[in-house]
UniProtKB/TrEMBL annotation:
One of its GO terms (cellular component) is plasma membrane. InterPro entries: Aquaporin-like, MIP, MIP/Aquaporin. It comes from the Bacteria. It is found in: Membrane. PANTHER family: AQUAPORIN OR AQUAGLYCEROPORIN RELATED (PTHR43829), AQUAPORIN-9 (PTHR43829:SF9). This is Aquaporin.
């Protein structure tokens, strides 16, 4: 869950157009380094499921082919939902800690007054 939350938090931070992002041609490389770094830090020698698509899909295929315990780990705990919750937690933390302080990306119409920043609206 923590690895998935970190992954989604940093992917949103890297690709958010209202913040400072790397050059467009470097974004895939930076995200690849991010995945490798999280895998080396949080992964085990049996693999790591930081992406729900890498975890839920194989579990579903295993279950449909006859492995009835595919949605449980070796101790019997139903682990399949944890990467999904981790992604939601990472996205929520980004919005809570960073996203609300960034200026709005909505373009202004000519002659309109600028809209207040999200940061000013949350401060009071």
């Amino acid at each position: 869950m923590i690895g998935t939350a970190i992954l989604l938090f940093l992917i949103i931070a890297i690709t958010d157009a209202t913040g400072t992002t790397p050059a467009a041609h470097l974004v895939p490389f930076v995200i690849g380094l991010l995945v490798v770094g999280i895998g080396m830090a949080w992964g085990t020698n049996a693999g790591y499921a930081t992406n729900p698509a890498r975890d839920f899909g194989p579990r579903l295929a295993s279950f449909l082919t006859g492995y009835e315990g595919a949605f449980r780990d070796q101790t019997g705990y139903p682990y399949f939902w944890i990467p999904i919750i981790g992604g939601l937690a990472g996205a929520g933390l980004y919005q809570l800690l960073i996203g609300r302080f960034l200026p709005s990306a909505v373009p202004q119409e000519p002659g309109e007054l600028p809209a207040p920043d999200r940061a000013e609206a949350t401060r009071g």
